[in-house]
Design goal:
Elements (H helix, E strand, L loop, with lengths): L1 H9 L7 H52 L42 E6 L2 E7 L15 E3 L8
Antiparallel strand pairs: 1-2, 2-3
Length: about 150
């Protein structure tokens, strides 16, 4: 047994061959190619779920704003009224969200706020992954109040 240990230590050609290294690299590349689309799909799905949760949280914050002030923010005041007190309001008791980061969607774009129109008091919108109106799957718009968590 001692001889075999000494022979291994003295061999100058010990190590991996170029062929062995290439085979390992090919196997790792194939694994990465198979796993990456699944991971990216989960990431996209997670961002859509996060946007839906954020939009519902913003809607609840806007309701609290209305309870305190008697109205929803104007379009000019926008969602920033949830963080900073508008000059014309005395009964503001905010901030209603923790930070300005709450006002951006998972794709780092600001949520779109539109004030009262028809029977709706306000509308919140994010255009999804592509940032453009319309789209399908992960690129589709998320609109509140048409969207609710129960409708997932």
């Amino acid at each position: 047994m001692k001889d075999s240990t000494q022979r291994r230590k003295k061999r100058p050609d010990a190590g991996f061959t170029l062929t062995e290294l290439l085979v390992v690299m090919v196997i790792l590349s194939l694994l990465a190619a198979a796993v990456t689309p699944q991971v990216m799909g989960r990431l996209d799905r997670s961002k859509v779920r996060a946007a839906k949760l954020q939009i519902n949280t913003l809607a609840a914050s806007l309701d609290l704003f209305k309870i305190d002030t008697g109205r929803y923010p104007s379009e000019q005041e926008g969602l920033k009224a949830l963080i900073e007190k508008p000059a014309s309001i005395e009964t503001w008791d905010g901030p209603y969200v923790r930070s300005g980061a709450s006002l951006t969607d998972p794709w780092q774009r600001e949520f779109i706020y539109r004030s009262a129109s028809g029977t709706k008091d306000f509308v919140l919108v994010t255009f999804g992954a592509d940032g453009k109106e319309g789209g399908k799957k992960y690129d589709s718009d998320i609109v509140w109040p048409d969207y609710t968590l129960a409708g997932q």
